[in-house]
Structure formats: structure tokens, C-alpha cells
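Hi, here's the filled form for the chain we discussed.

Project: internal
Contact: R.S.
Residues: 266
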Amino acid sequence: MTAKANEQEEKRLREENRERFGARSAAYRASSVHGAGLDLDRLIALLAPGPGQQALDIATGAGHVAVALAQTGAQTTACDLTANMLAEAAANLAAHGLKAELVEADALALPFAAASFDLVASRMAPHHFAEPARFVGEVFRVLRPGGRFGLVDQAAPTQPQAAETINAFEKLRDPSHNRQLSLDEWQQLAQAAGFTIRSAEIFRKPLDFDWWTGVQNATDETRRQLSELLANGPAEARAWYRPEFRENGLIAQFSSPHAILLAVKP
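And the returned structure, exactly as it came back:
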């Protein structure tokens, strides 16, 4: 892909994210899948934030990670591409009696000086980013030496055909989806940027199919196509998402593997 084509695709994804998530921001604040969970607990445990530390939450969405960081006493900054999401994050923080600096920003071009933060987090968002390597490079730039980078994101299998099916499945539900990477790919990108990997694991997140499709206002036809895509796709894709089907052929629930990564800047 040429540089101009890359730029156009990046712009398309950026505007798609703004439009779709701006319209659905309240649903993400109310979502128990985003607002809590063992993956969020694990991310905070790995990052080990504390009073006086400068923390950044990238693509904060409705601010659930920002809340968890601020609750530890860390001086928290939260950024997002979408103004409506930042408004939800502000309301979420206020509901918990917390404060954070909120900044409208692109994860691929962070408006922060080099070596500004002790830790950086990003949860359940990087699969939307047009250039994951550029995102990781930006994280490395804004971290201080010894700084920690914690990532949680839905993961793809390493088998190429299964990964292609999983990403097609995700993109059919949400056209702003770019690509979810495997845990191995995230480790490779982090190491290429200069990070040292401290922890890398997979966490399975059970998802109700009706809720998952409802968040994106999927039609009945889209739900049918999604169910058929997994039912008729590679066995490796079904093994990865472990769908349970209803008698009518629609998925009832499935299990989404998420990558959880902790990397340190030397």
C-alpha cells in the first residue's frame, strides 16, 4: 500500500471511529463488559500505579481504565479521539469523585512531550488503530525510562486463515474495526519499538452475542451473517471463539480471547 493510500485508510478509520463511537458513547459507560472484569483488574495489577505517578490512558472510551488508575492516586491523563467519549469519561470520573486531565487526541499522534509518563495503558481499543506499530512507537516515546506499558485487546489466533475469519467476523459487526493482532504480534511490535516484555498472557472474556451485536445496532441480517461466518468458517476460528449456537442457528454466546501485555521501557 502506498503512503497516500495508507494516509487515506488512516483518515477513514479515524472518522469511522469518531462517528460510530460518538453515537454509542453512553452505552459504553453503562457496559459491564467495559466497566469491570478480571482483565481490567489484571491490567491494573500489572501496571501497579500509585500516588505521584503520571499515568496515561489511551483511547479511554468511557473512562473505565482512567477511573481505575485515578483510584490508586496516580495523576491520570485520559485521551480519546471522540469528544462524546471524553464527556462520558468525565461523567464516569465525577460519579466516582475523581478527576483526570481529559485530552482529545489520536493514539497515532499523541500531543504529549517525550518522557512525560510513568505508565501508559490502553484497553479494548487498539484493534481500531490503523497503524499498531506507530501506536506502540508513540507509547514508547511518551514513557520515561523504566516506564510501564499495559495493553489489553481482543486477540487473533496465529493461524492465518483463522485470523482472517476472526477479523472478518469483527469487522462485519463493527466497520470501524481495523485488525486485532495475535499476542505474538503484539510482543514483536513492542520489542521492535525497544520495549522489554515482562508479561504476556491470554485472558478469555465470555460475551453474550445479543449484547455484543446490540452495542453496534446490528440488524437481524447481520446477526445471521455473523453466525454463519463462524459456523461455516475454519475449525480453528471456531476453536478460538468457542461459539455456542441456538437451535435457530444464531450464536448465543462466545468466548473472546484477549491479549494482556506488560512491557517496560529500558
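Let me know if anything looks off before we file it.
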